[in-house]
Amino acid sequence: MVKIFNLDFYDENLENLKIELEKDIDENKKVRVYTPNVDHIINIKSNENVFSKYSKAEYIIADGWPVVATAKIKKTPIYKITGVDLMDELLKLADKKSLNIFFLGATDDTLEKLKSNIERDFNNINLINYNNGYFSEEENERIVKKINETSSNILFVGMGSPKQEIWITENIEKLNVNIAIAIGGALKIYSEEIERAPKFVQKIGMEWFYRFMKEPKRLFSRYFVKYPKFIKHFIDEIKE
User: From which residue to which does any coiled coil extend (predicted)?
Assistant: First the structure.
């Protein structure tokens, strides 16, 4: 583990992470996986409640080049592992071991497309269940019960950060899952509602700009209002 922004980041590659998560399933453990990018770091730094929830995760993975670059400058390198890539590996693992999976978040329409695409690409996943992310506090216990009744091994939660991380942390003790992962926009990518950036764009660290060009109205505030705030956190971090 490498401590950056007061969080303990996982410092091995995707292949090793996949091995560890498979072992967690085999040993019937219960773990949380969060994948912070710059937007998440800003939320963590500005809200103590978000930080306290985030810091409880067993695996904190760097999903963003600025976070990886900060670690590199501090001479404590970590790997960039995107939520989409990790979701892909977990689906392969579920297919390999015939696991049950559950998706929480997005709309029913998105989830129906998502389920159809996964059934098309993976033949051996045992059960795929889902519930949209639009439910009240009064409905929370019903959602937890629904997840548990499916005997799901992996729970993918895509309700936006920090809502998804807070929800997982507040409900993890009641959930009978092995892996609860906060996955954000990966649900829309797998449903093919949003196209992922080409590989070469990902490699040069410009996937964020590709996403902005696809959804300028939704992402303008994030990238051009919130992101400049990260510079201060970056400077403070490398001074330590």
Answer: none
Coil vs helix vs strand at 75: coil
Rounded Cα distance between 219 and 217, Å, is: 6
Q: Tell whether omega for the bond before 162 is within 30 degrees of 0, i.e. cis.
A: yes
Of 230, 208, 203, nearest to 220 (Cα)? 208
Which residues make beta-bridge pairs with 32? 180
Residue whose C-alpha is closest to residue 158's, from 206, 105, 121, 109: 105
Phi, psi of 191 (to 5 degrees): -80, -5
Q: What is the pLDDT along the chain (240 residues), one digit of tens a residue?
A: 999 999 999 999 999 999 999 999 999 999 999 999 999 999 999 999 999 999 999 999 999 889 999 999 999 999 999 999 999 999 999 999 999 999 999 999 999 999 999 999 999 999 999 999 999 999 999 999 999 999 999 999 999 999 999 999 999 999 999 999 999 889 999 999 988 878 888 877 788 787 778 888 887 777 777 778 888 888 888 887
Q: What are the φ and ψ backbone dihedral angles of 32, each rounded to 5 degrees?
A: -110, 140
